[in-house]
């Protein structure tokens, strides 16, 4: 406790860090306030307050409940995330975008501009679909045509406003703004989920288990969080030796030190889960569009708690982990960059042997990373089978838990950097806080 109070005191002593934290909290307060503002022309009393499921439930969690409340920011930052993923994939397939990625700061600005344009297009399309499917006609109190046009404009403006809030947090606050906004949306659902779980165990509506079961749930949740942190932080350090270089006519030299390339156990982040979930929603969509196709195998693939669904979901995650790691981590480029800077892996010849060695290391650590990622992804389904409410089960794994852990670690890492720069102790007695950097978080959600 004394260490904690001392660390908080040190954080408050750093004026810049204090201002950034306060600014971030103010922006998040604004975000949470506008998430409760309902679209104009909607009768709130006639809205359905039922729990969303499937993809809609995931979107509602990321939006902090704004999706189900028909808020002016119901779509949140998900259109921006979708646009970022598309631009990232275009950078792999299209030479023009590949060139932008290699142009440094100017290329990054161009890609950011393309992402914003694409965000507007995606938001307009999703806004039209949202008001058509999620707003009951009997809840619309004005002319329907006017409502649809007005709501599309407001929802698009709302997403752009939230995107702007995220950029302001990144520039003047602490952490990656987009990631923090999503994290706050997920955390906003925790009190409601926890209240439901406590009521189901020890409340008047208890269906069995009692306080003992609740304690075991909390212990299991803590263990899952620790396990997830281990996966997010796990790296394989490949040693790299840099040759000494003489500077000018002086006797001073640079290099000659051994460094490491940290290759992550989970280089793909949450993207494999997102891709796999997109495919697993197809059977449920087919049964809704074609009610006559109520085959038993389709029903099993549509039920997240079924054994067939869990196994298929896990296999898809493992496949997509290898696929996404292969297209995002380039051993050849790593080898070339190392060679240009006079670096080499001890015992490995530069060039093709180095590229082959790095590729072999990535392949060996990707499989356990993919396997553990699949386990984390199906944990919510297993939690439901043990009687845990579905709302609370989301925090036992899946995309939401990976985002929470990744964002928290990244933010703590930035805070610790400020402390160490001012010659204060870090956040931990031993070691350093490590996490994914901001660009990885933004692309990996």
Order of helical and strand elements? HHHHHHHHHHEEEEHHHHEHHHH
Average pLDDT over all residues: 79
**How many structural domains are formed by the residues?**
2
Question: Over the alpha carbons, how many angstroms does the gyration radius reach?
Answer: 24 Å
Low-confidence stretches: 437-445
How many helix segments?
18
Q: What is the CATH architecture descriptor of the largest domain?
A: Orthogonal Bundle
Biggest sheet strand line-up:
4-1-5
Strand count = 5
CATH overall fold name of the largest domain: Preprotein translocase SecY subunit
Question: How widely separated are the two ends?
Answer: 34 Å
CATH class of the largest domain: Mainly Alpha
Keywords:
single chain, 445 residues, mainly alpha, Preprotein translocase SecY subunit, 3-stranded antiparallel beta sheet, disordered C terminus
Question: Secondary structure elements and their pairing?
Answer:
Layout: H1 2-13, H2 15-34, H3 54-62, H4 78-93, H5 95-101, H6 105-133, H7 144-172, H8 177-188, H9 190-202, H10 210-233, E1 235-242, E2 245-246, E3 253-254, E4 258-264, H11 271-289, H12 296-302, H13 307-328, H14 331-340, E5 343-344, H15 352-385, H16 390-393, H17 398-421, H18 438-444
Antiparallel strand pairs: 1-4, 1-5, 2-3
Question: What does this protein look like?
Answer:
The chain has 445 residues and is mainly alpha-helical. It is 67% helix and 5% strand. The protein has helices at 2-13, 15-34, 54-62, 78-93, 95-101, 105-133, 144-172, 177-188, 190-202, 210-233, 271-289, 296-302, 307-328, 331-340, 352-385, 390-393, 398-421, 438-444; strands at residues 235-242, 245-246, 253-254, 258-264, 343-344. The strands form two sheets. The protein has a three-stranded antiparallel β-sheet with strand order 4-1-5. Strands 2-3 form a two-stranded antiparallel ribbon. The longest helix is centred in the C-terminal third of the chain and has 34 residues, at 352-385. The protein is globular and about 75 Å long. Residues 437-445 have low confidence and may be disordered.
């Amino acid at each position: 406790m004394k260490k904690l109070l001392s660390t908080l005191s040190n954080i408050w002593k750093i004026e810049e860090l204090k201002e950034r934290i306060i600014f971030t909290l103010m922006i998040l307060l604004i975000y949470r306030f506008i998430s409760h503002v309902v679209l104009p022309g909607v009768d709130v009393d006639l809205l359905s307050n039922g729990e969303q499921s499937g993809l809609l439930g995931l979107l509602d969690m990321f939006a902090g409940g704004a999706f189900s409340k028909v808020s002016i920011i119901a779509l949140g930052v998900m259109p921006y995330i979708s646009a970022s993923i598309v631009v990232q994939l275009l950078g792999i397939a299209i030479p023009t975008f590949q060139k932008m990625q290699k142009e440094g700061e100017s290329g990054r600005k161009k890609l950011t501009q393309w992402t914003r344009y694409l965000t507007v297009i995606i938001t307009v399309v999703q806004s039209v679909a949202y008001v058509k499917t999620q707003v009951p006609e009997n809840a619309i109190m004005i002319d329907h045509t006017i409502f649809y046009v007005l709501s599309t404009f407001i929802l698009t403006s709302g997403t752009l406003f939230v995107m702007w809030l995220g950029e302001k947090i990144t520039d003047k606050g602490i952490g990656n703004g987009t990631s923090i906004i999503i994290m706050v949306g997920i955390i906003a659902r925790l009190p409601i989920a926890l209240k439901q779980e406590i009521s189901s165990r020890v409340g008047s509506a208890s269906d069995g288990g009692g306080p003992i079961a609740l304690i075991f749930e909390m212990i299991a949740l803590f263990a899952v969080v620790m396990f997830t942190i281990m996966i997010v932080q796990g790296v394989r350090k490949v040693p790299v030796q840099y040759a000494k270089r003489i500077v000018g006519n002086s006797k001073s030299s640079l290099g000659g030190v051994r460094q490491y390339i940290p290759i992550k156990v989970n280089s793909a982040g949450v993207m494999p889960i997102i891709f796999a979930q997109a495919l697993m929603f197809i059977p449920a969509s087919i049964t809704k569009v074609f009610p006559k196709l109520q085959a038993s195998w389709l029903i099993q693939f549509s039920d997240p708690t079924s054994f067939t669904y869990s196994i298929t979901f896990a296999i898809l995650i493992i496949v997509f982990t290898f696929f996404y790691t292969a297209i995002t981590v380039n051993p050849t480029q790593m080898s070339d960059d190392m060679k240009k800077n006079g670096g080499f892996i001890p015992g490995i010849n530069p060039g093709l042997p180095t590229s082959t060695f790095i590729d072999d290391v990535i392949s060996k650590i990707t499989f356990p990373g993919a396997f553990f990622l699949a386990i984390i992804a199906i944990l919510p389904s297993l939690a439901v089978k043990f009687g845990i409410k579905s709302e609370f089960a989301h925090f036992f794994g899946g995309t939401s838990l990976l985002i929470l852990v990744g964002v928290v670690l990244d933010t703590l890492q930035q805070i610790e950097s400020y402390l160490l720069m001012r010659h204060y102790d870090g956040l931990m007695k031993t070691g350093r806080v490590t996490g994914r950097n901001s660009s990885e978080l933004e692309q990996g959600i």
